[in-house]
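Aim 2, interim progress. The first record below pairs a target sequence with its structure tokens.
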Amino acid sequence: MALSPSTIVTAAPSTPLPPIIMAPARVLRGSGLIAAASPELARLGSRPLIICGDRTRARVEADLLPVLDGDDRFEAVAIADYGADCCEASLEAMQQQAIDTGTNFIIGMGGGKAIDAAKLIAHRCHLPIATIPTSAATCAAWTALSNVYSDRGAFLYDVSLDRCPDLLLLDYDLIATAPIATLVSGIGDALAKWYEASISSGQSEQTIVVAAVQQARVLRDLLFQKSAEAIANPGGEAWREVVDASVLLAGVIGGLGGAQCRTVAAHAVHNGLTHIDPEHRTIHGEKVAYGILVQLRLEELIQGSQLAATARQQLLGFYRELGLPCSLDDLKLSDRSLADLQRAADLACVPGSDIHHLPFAIAPSDLIGAMVSTTAGVAQSVTVG
């Protein structure tokens, strides 16, 4: 029997779930990619603005510019230096340069801050972007996120972008020119995916979130197994796998898990420490790695978690094997005053901070206690189990 209009039931519109902004549209990895990059880059436009740092500019001029200059599909090429940090003043100058030069796509080449700046300019100008990381220190080349800092390198805020990059070129030959310390830092940053996502996911039963958390576990285990060999043999098979893990797989986890696999205390500690380390004595992943230990120590001190104590013990052995920082002394911050530590803790605990994704209340005094005791009760000879 046909239903009359008066008997047809329509469902109320449901609230849409957050979008999954998972991955770059195209990811290429291998050796010698930059030399053959012009067809890929030409898909994005004809007038690129290359955003890089002062240390990367020589590499841009030696490796990338000849490729673009030798291809008549590119009408004009401009270069912008993001400055000492990805800060508002430099972002405004680069955005104006993009407008003045008639740029129709962005290339971000460099480390995390250069690529964050490039992604944010592309976002603000509604332009395509290609990312070319020069080290494996972060997963910035993958993600739909940019961090903004002060002109002295203190973290201010992050910006969620509407998409991941249009193209990611991971050239192993280029990555191999970076100091091995950048890969060690990238390992520390990537490790945080497990320790933070496993908490921030709140034991979600959503299929996509469960998949992201399990990928974070796989990432952690892969790094435990292969990092020492990767560092001992740069350019080898294990090295390439760890590079892929730090740049690509870490990005997959953030893209797949989204807002429910957020950063927690490890990155909040990093953010606070940037305000008391104006000399940039250590880099992003080193601070994050230390922040993981602080997060585990908080779980021990506040919740009495033996599981966290065991995990911290395991990490300390792993860190010492690789050369990751285990304490404020290792971060070269043991000379900071109690007032400095209080400032860092206060900033890490401001309302809305990622540290409040922990499943218990946290005060700055708790955080200071954890920060100064990351190696407490653990023998120097501990090794990874």
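The second target in this work package is listed in the same format:
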Amino acid sequence: MTKGTTKRMIIMLAIAAVLIGGVVWFQHFKTTMIAKAIKGQSNPPQTVSTTVAQESSWQPTVEALGNLRASQQASLSSQIAGIVTAIHFDSGERARKGQVLAQISDAPQRAQLAQLQAQVGQLQAQRELAQITLKRDEAQLKVQAISQAVVDTDRANVASLDAQLKALAEQINAQKAVLAQATITAPFSGVLGIRQINLGQYLAPGAAAVTLQALDPMDIDFTVPQNQIELLHVGMTAEVTTSAVPGKTFSAKVIAVEPQVNTATRNLTVRARIPNPKGELLPGVFATVRLTDGAPRNYITLPNAAVSYNPYGATVYVVKDEGKAADGKPKLVAEQRFITTGLTRGDQVAILSGVKAGETIVTAGQLKLRNGVPILINNSVQPADSPNPQVPNS
């Protein structure tokens, strides 16, 4: 092999080595950059807003929405069919207990009653005669003028007439009860509704003639969630407000608590009673009920926006400080934590477990987070966190 050939081979080998080294370096560089890019894309810093969990004094309060109803209400009707012969009331007037409101035609029933009373008179006359006969025969029996069988027959006649009189008395009482059903009376004192009948109208049994409602006091029915049952008891006071009477608060008292929770809504039904001497409240009015129980308690509170409610439980993201980052700034990461929530108050929710006072909690941007994601804090905008939010006037 000549020197020229050897030199050319060395040059070719050197060029091949350079090319192979360049390819290997490029592949290593590409792999490194891709790994960095993937790593950078997997956990990019996410901007969130935060708040510090603090313990505050909280008065346990239950707020609920309910509907007002009359403490007593009835749709008055006749129990027998007939023609309306008299009306003794006007729409919307007050009625007292026992007041006669309307009369249904009862001529056939009265005629039958008169017939029964006439039969009573006849039987009473027959009994008097039978009694006289019995006394006379008893006197004759003492002197052996008649037999014992005759006296026994007289006594049987008197007993039979007594039984007939008793049966007629029961029929008369039943007939009087039927006559009473033809009269519509007020079962309690209250306010009458709009009249539904007219003179000469045929009224079927059970057809409404008018409604009657006792408006003082009034009742309000409302529901509360099962996690607030411990705050409810019969006798506790409540405040009721409604847009129907703006600017006024009515005092109420809880009179009944349903002994079972609705399995569909997991709510408990409660009834409170409200004095209504001026008649300001009416049945069907929508109202807000506020109940306060016991002395204030200390709770760790967070804005309701900080809590994520899921079927498997409520969670929050806690900000954890993991020292310094490469640029010297604090390295903050998100940690998801399950919590137990309690009562709510305005925009706030009480935290019973899972969060300690002084911990920093994410209040906005949770949808972008998962465990270990680095975060940046920007608290220029904060969610509502008022215990008693007010609706701004338009």
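The longest strand covers residues 208-225. This observation will shape the mutagenesis plan for the next reporting period.
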